[in-house]
């Protein structure tokens, strides 16, 4: 079964939407093992002239099964995504449910295995109307930057987020709390699947940047630092690389894998979206 939660979206329009005829969509992605022996993150995307899909997944489980879970999530979502699907919250939820079914079927066929599971975050954009929708399970986040400032971010499915929601702290505790890695929802859990979605399609405008990133990424980069580094970057690829270098400098002995995909609306470098599929990670 699936529980779908609609996340509020509030971003006042800053300027008129760009001319769709001249729109470009840039993508950059990066996945790094951190200081772990194995990279259990996976990410990938598929773009076309009609619609686009991006996915980041952070796997977990014993004996290296986390990388199996995250790769299965990414491949299942990209295999189930076709350009004719509308870029809506309903599509994002259906894709995440397909990933849940794939992981649960794998676990049923391999009962000797461990309790592998994964976070998953899907971003969809209609290439013609430049409207976006997203859905997530776990603590892999979506950020929307407008005028180089964060105007939206998803809320984690985590124990610490529940503490905050109940009034036992504010967002300042989310990166340092000893229980920050405990999830309340994940792909591969036998409980009812909780999916949070963006709600009605979000109209994107020229200059908008979306970031999908695992907890290993955002835990070591506060939002104000992301904004400042975006301000200093000439492309989303440069931005991701700059943030990754900053994370590497701040890594502890056993720092987690970290992965991200950045999507830019409008031209920085004149690269027109082409039909392609790419997967990186484990």
TrEMBL record:
<protein>
    <submittedName>
        <fullName>Protein phosphatase 2C domain-containing protein</fullName>
    </submittedName>
</protein>
<dbReference type="InterPro" id="IPR036457">
    <property type="entry name" value="PPM-type-like_dom_sf"/>
</dbReference>
<dbReference type="InterPro" id="IPR001932">
    <property type="entry name" value="PPM-type_phosphatase-like_dom"/>
</dbReference>
<feature type="domain" description="PPM-type phosphatase">
    <location>
        <begin position="24"/>
        <end position="265"/>
    </location>
</feature>
<dbReference type="Pfam" id="PF13672">
    <property type="entry name" value="PP2C_2"/>
</dbReference>
